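Appendix B, example 12.
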Amino acid sequence: MLKIGDRAPEFSGTDQDGNVISLSDFAGRKLVLYFYPKDNTPGCTAEACDLRDNYQRFLAAGYAVVGVSKDSAASHKKFIGKYSLPFPLISDPSAEILQAYGAWGEKKNYGKVYMGTIRKTFVIDENGIIADIIGKVDTKAHTAQILG
């Protein structure tokens, strides 16, 4: 289980446009890396739109923002287009990145237990160290959780 002060696991994944994005791309920059279950669902849309609406605040504070889910690049492209999201979304169909960050695991819904994406956000500093982990995400006010 990752904790604050740990080195963030290196990752590489493909975004909605086929670009490969890696943790090393953000060396010397702060990164908000957020994991979410599914494009176009109410909670995930609220979270993405809150980050979008406050994107200039993230940039002003020196942060890049990247989302990760198991959805396909094509699904991400539609999601970004529909909601004018200004940041990339990585497609992680094998859940490799999700697992590396502990964002894949057992979930319960209406008494049914299944494996799925656990919504969580990692704030990573300029040196690749985890500065904050938000495990209980408020999808409508996520920026306030990150930036205070």
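The first strand starts at residue 12 and ends at 15. Residues 12-147 form a domain with the Glutaredoxin fold (CATH 3.40.30.10).
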